[in-house]
Design a protein that fits this description.
The chain is of the alpha+beta class and 279 residues long. The protein is 16% helix and 25% strand. Bound molecules: 2-oxoglutaric acid (AKG).
Length: 279
């Protein structure tokens, strides 16, 4: 993570990494979703009023890490992608983990949005937070959103309120519902292959989708080694198929703990096993 990226993430509470995935990787994900179209469900999270409402439910895919081979493979390869290791090390410290099962948000024109949410700094939140101390950024859960189709500003999809990870006051309801001060809400433009990293403390949500083409955003959420945000997956034990993964991928699915933890190395394939618990 270079100095410009650190400046932008610290300032805004999110960062766009252009061309994170190459064309072949984007194609592999899109092919996997097309081959498994029958697994699409309705997102249990629904819009709750204001300008986030829309006539169509958001579509969601999940469980991709255990899809039949070869469809699960690109998703497994993304767990400890070597290009992502420096971002995760810098934002979470060494020893980060998958928070819960990755999912893909999708939907065509008319798909509803989702109310803006996020912890901010208005009160101490031990699971979704942003701190800077001793020259280091540290975050609670963060979201890596990989775009599999293009998003122009105004198309809808992910929106953020830049800088709100440091906000000290409660966000007014009418802003959360995108009814008032729309000018502070940024619908992040991005291309297929880009990665947007944002902090769960940054106010964020979904603007209803207006483009003719389908939204396709793949979300991986990571937490520091001592934390698990969302219950239900990879919280207390490894999945049955863990032996099919590389050492690094296995380390990413370890439950939260610190002592004797394998730490993903820069190559994204191997792990370091430091003797100290304070690497
Ligand atoms: O990308 C989006 O539509 C918003 C995702 C979201 O709200 C979340 O990850 O908590």
């Amino acid at each position: 993570m270079n100095e410009k990226e650190k400046f932008l993430y610290d300032l805004q509470g999110f960062l766009v990494v252009k061309n994170f995935l190459n064309e072949e990787e984007v194609q592999a994900f899109n092919e996997a979703f097309e081959a498994n179209g029958d697994k699409r469900g309705d997102d249990p999270n629904q819009a709750t009023g204001g300008n986030m409402d829309g006539p169509v439910r958001r579509g969601i895919f999940n469980g991709m890490l255990s899809w039949e081979k070869p469809w699960c493979l690109p998703f497994r390869d993304l767990l400890a992608h070597p290009k992502n290791v420096p971002y995760l090390d810098t934002l979470l410290g060494r020893g980060w983990k998958m928070d819960h099962s990755p999912f893909m948000l999708t939907g065509g024109k008319g798909t509803e949005g989702l109310r803006i949410h996020g912890a901010t700094s208005a009160r101490f939140n031990g699971s979704a937070y942003y701190t800077f101390a001793n020259g280091m950024m540290r975050c609670g859960m963060i979201v890596c959103q990989f775009q599999l189709s293009d998003v122009a500003e105004g198309d809808g999809g992910l929106c953020v309120i830049p800088g709100s990870h440091k906000a000290n006051f409660k966000c007014p309801e009418e802003i959360l519902l995108w009814e008032d001060h729309q000018e502070i809400v940024y619908n992040v433009p991005s291309k297929a292959g880009d990665m947007i990293i944002f902090n769960e403390a940054t106010l964020h949500g979904t603007i209803p989708w207006t483009a003719e083409h389908e939204r396709r955003s793949l979300l991986y959420r990571y937490s520091p080694k001592y934390l698990h945000f969302a219950g239900g997956t990879y919280e207390t034990k490894q999945p049955e198929w863990v032996s099919e993964l590389t050492e690094a991928q296995q380390a990413v699915l370890e439950p939260p703990y610190i002592y004797n933890r394998p730490l993903v190395a820069e190559d994204g394939e191997t792990v370091d096993r430091p003797r100290s618990h304070m690497p």
